[in-house]
Amino acid sequence: MKKILTIAGSDSSGGAGIQADLRTFAKHDLYGFCALTVIVTMETDTWSHGVFPIELPVIDAQIKTALEGVDVDAIKLGMLPTPAIIENVDGYLKTWAKKVPVVVDPVMVCKGNKPLFPEHAEAIRTHLIKHATVTTPNLFEAAQLAGMEEITNYEEAKEAARRILALGCQAVAITNVGRVMAPKTSGDLFYDGHEFVLMEGAFIDTHHTHGLGCTFAAHVAANLCKGFSPRESVFEAKEAIKKGIKNHWALNQFVGTLDFPDSFK
Ligand code: PXL
What we know:
Shape: globular
Structural class: alpha/beta
Bound molecules: 3-hydroxy-5-(hydroxymethyl)-2-methylisonicotinaldehyde
Strand order of the largest sheet: 3-2-1-4-5-6
Helix content: 25-40%
Largest sheet: 6 strands, mixed
Strand content: 15-25%
Distance between the termini: 17 Å
Number of helices: 8
CATH topology: UDP-N-acetylmuramoyl-L-alanine:D-glutamate ligase
Number of strands: 11
């Protein structure tokens, strides 16, 4: 059985973070490991997020358990809440990214909230993107990585993809590019230095999308782990997300999430 490590946070509301990652890995019949970096909680009256980083030695011990204690076939990064944690992970990826595929989901925001860690964009840019087989920024994260104020149209999204590739990753998939296109689509932009591919889907007007970014990146990582190319991996991820979002559902009055039934595979 192939093994995959996620280095990411716990989402107490269940839709994102390691919860999404491990659930997705299981659907791909992969054995999932997790190094927990941070615990995210929600205020019950406003749903604003509390962010509680795990101490660095504890994170380091978890990563060692998986990488040195067992061995893995792929690595996925989610929320890494401090530059010190990012630099620690960089140290491991210097050797591991040469051996196995790595997906960097450059998490800087939780949906519906202000940027969680804008001051860490630079650390992600310099320490992590260069290791990525595929990186999966949303529009906000892509602009941060590309050093652009904002992405407001398709041409700017392509420019951001070019700049992100120049940071040293093999491929980039910018999610939700369709939001700045007319008419709105669910388009994601894939670029591997050869051609730009806009992967479109029907636009489903819902805010029940909690965990979408993490789940998309987890599918990409699972596919790479199974030996698919970056382009194939991103395409399958998009198809899986389309199915999940079609059956979105509300957790409460603040947040709703994707469907995770077997058909989601
Ligand atoms: O969707 C971004 C995200 C990533 N990781 C964790 C989260 C969230 C958003 O809530 O809680 C742990």
